Amino acid sequence: MAPIPVPPARSAPPAGPAGRPGIRGRLTVPVLALGGALMAVMQTVVVPLLPDLPRLTGASAGTVSWMVTATLLSGAVLTPVLGRAGDMYGKRRVLLIALALMTLGSLLCALTSDVGVLITARALQGAAAAVVPLSISILRDELPPERTGSAVALMSSTVGIGAALGLPLAALVIQYVNWHAMFWVTTGLGSVGLLLAWWAVRESPVRTPGRFDVLGALGLAAGLVCLLLAVSQGGDWGWGSPRIAGLFAGCVLILALWCLQQLRAERPLVDLRLASRTRVALPHLTALLVGFGFYANSLVTAQLVQAPKATGYGLGLSIVGSGLCLLPGGVIMLLFSPLSARISAARGPRVTLALGAAVLALGYAVRIADSRDLWMIIVGATTVATGTTLAYSALPTLILRAVPSGQTASANGVNVLMRTIGQATCSAAVAAILVHHTSPVSGAPVPTLHGYLLAFAMAGSVALVACAVALAIPADGAGGVRRLRGSAAASHDEALEGA
Description:
Elements: H1 23-44, H2 53-57, H3 61-64, H4 66-89, H5 91-111, H6 115-125, H7 131-142, H8 145-176, H9 179-200, H10 214-237, H11 242-264, H12 272-275, H13 278-306, H14 319-347, H15 349-369, H16 374-402, H17 408-435, E1 438-441, E2 444-447, H18 449-471, H19 478-498
Antiparallel strand pairs: 1-2
């Protein structure tokens, strides 16, 4: 009997960086990075509008400020919740939901001038805060170990890149068109990002089965709302007012009960036992401190360079000019993310994190030395951005090495939440300093240069504390790193076999 001819083997098409053949595999990392940058753009585009929104909407300045507060609150609440949902039900699925909510919120803002609808739309956009932790978790599941570090570093840096690009983009559109056009532009960008993510990103096979902890999600939401509402509104309502005191007391009580519930739950929203381990808790604490430290740069720089020349230090720049001052920092963040990955590969992410916090503090030292000359302001702001890039790029790597593969999205969600709490606390602290250090200029109170320098000194000091905490994180030995990678690979293989 003649043998059956066997057709010649066909060579497989070249695999992309995510291990998949063709262009979709090669575009996975850039598409996820685009989603992270769009999230940051959506969060910052409203900032140049804030002074004019009371006139445009007919609402008070206090009401308009909720367009920022609502995004902050919903992002803080939804980031750990959506991270946990991604671990359970599929990271790609939840990522697409977050991007869709972000785009829907932008569309609603483009269609209305009603402040109530605008605030609701901005709350929807807060869901996009979960894009970065979900994307980082997808990258861990999809990329080979040698590619994960650089991709995660780029993904984490997109937050700063998007923020640096969002301010001048919004300012240009507002100055030359109108504010509704700005939201139409962001709606288009969000739609493109959503479609690309749907096309290029595949669903990760790594899942953590179980029942979603609804009670834990509600408890965490209530506690975070009390905390962030008190922090963000303390300056307006009065830090000693009954409302603020009640919110802080409610936060402590609710979160204490929530911790007890999480420790007793079979499938908790946040694994507190895992989070309390030194290798996880210290990166979370450092994330809070770095979030506090870097945010003062964004808050203060635009105000300082726009201050009238009559102050003696202000440069009287336009909104567009002030946004352009932060643009070099965004470019630096894009360029330095690969360097951060190389330092982490050579010395470990703990060293990268500590170095980033130290460079961040150095940037504020430059700001304190000279905040009158434009070129020195840009140098100082860019140095802060460099330190932020190194720190933010290292944090996800530390978390990925310290938690099981089935909990990466929720653990990184908690890490992003800690950054958000740090930023909110920084905003309140900077506002308190500037309010108490003002002088009249043309009949209006304007922050003094001394007030700005105090804000820089505060942020730089917090960055130095972050450096010390980072150095206290246990270092990985070579064998430890190999074991962690082996464990991750084993979990991945088990998930593939189960699928």
